[in-house]
Design a protein that fits this description.
By secondary structure, the protein is an alpha/beta fold. It has 8 helices and 9 strands. α1 packs across α7 and α3 runs parallel beside α4. The longest helix is centred in the C-terminal third of the chain and has 17 residues. The mean pLDDT is 94. One of its GO terms (biological process) is thiamine diphosphate biosynthetic process.
């Protein structure tokens, strides 16, 4: 009997189903892996924004993680919303004992502009979480918060990658989707550069894009791809999901995680 690769997401719940744990698990299923979850926070969230957020105690996060890793095991881990310094430190300690690739999505603000990471947790992300990452996947706003580097063009993405890599991840994927023009991302380990370019789709329904990309990278790493291959395959999946994004509620709808299934 075939056992699919096992991927763990450590992140917050999105009650609207477009981002967070829900997006992660949908992505993992769509890409042929077995998704598992450690819930770090519960949000009241819909297409209009985040109406409330409640983080779980560190002990609850630790117990979920140990329950999964000690029995089932993992072949890749993805982290998302870690709201407080205590949760960041807790998860970083847990990840240090895992022999599997780790994708860190340093979630700071939701698609709607709602803050999901306390300002006082930034230092813990820099000093404790980023060093555990096989790949860190910040967008340009998160780069600015973590490093002070404000990117306005492609050359600035190189500076951003260097600044993120200085905190210890093996690879940095700088997501340039907020720049004008066609979207471009830069993957770098300080020696190699891989540029990923695509068309910009005329579709405002992009909720969950960052979570989906990070989870897709983790899924492909669990399947045995190297980092540049995993990022390339994940980008192709996310591009299709964005093109198929659909309206939901009165605001910004989600990407379509099942777009490949027609």
């Amino acid at each position: 009997m075939r056992i699919p690769p096992r991927v763990l997401t450590v992140a917050g719940s999105d009650s609207g189903g477009g981002a967070g744990i829900q997006a992660d698990l949908k992505t993992m299923l769509a890409l042929g892996t077995h998704g598992m979850s450690v819930v770090t926070a519960v949000t009241a969230q819909n297409s209009l924004g985040v109406q409330g957020a409640w983080e779980l105690p560190a002990e609850a996060v630790r117990a979920q993680f140990r329950s999964i890793v000690d029995d089932i095991g993992v072949q890749a881990v993805k982290t998302g919303m870690l709201a407080s310094p205590e949760l960041v430190r807790t998860v970083a300690r847990l990840l240090a004992g895992v022999d599997a690739p780790v994708v860190v999505d340093p979630v700071g603000v939701s698609k709607h502009g709602d803050r999901l990471l306390a300002a006082e947790a930034l230092e813990s992300v820099r000093e404790r979480l980023l060093p555990t990452a096989t790949v860190a996947t910040p967008n340009l706003d998160e780069v600015a918060e973590l490093t002070g580097v404000k990117v306005t063009d492609e050359d600035g993405m190189r500076e951003a990658a260097r600044a993120i890599l200085a905190y210890g991840p093996r690879w940095a994927l700088i997501k340039g989707g907020h720049l004008p023009g066609a979207p471009v991302d830069l993957l770098s380990d300080g020696r190699e550069e891989h540029w990923f370019r695509g068309a910009r789709h005329d579709n405002r329904h992009t909720h969950g894009t960052g979570c989906t990309l990070a989870s897709a990278i983790a899924a492909h790493l669990a399947k045995g791809l190297d980092v540049p291959q995993a990022v390339g395959a994940a980008k192709a999946y996310v591009t299709g999901a964005i093109a198929a994004g659909f309206p939901l509620g009165a605001g910004i709808g989600p990407v379509d995680h099942a777009w490949q299934w027609g």
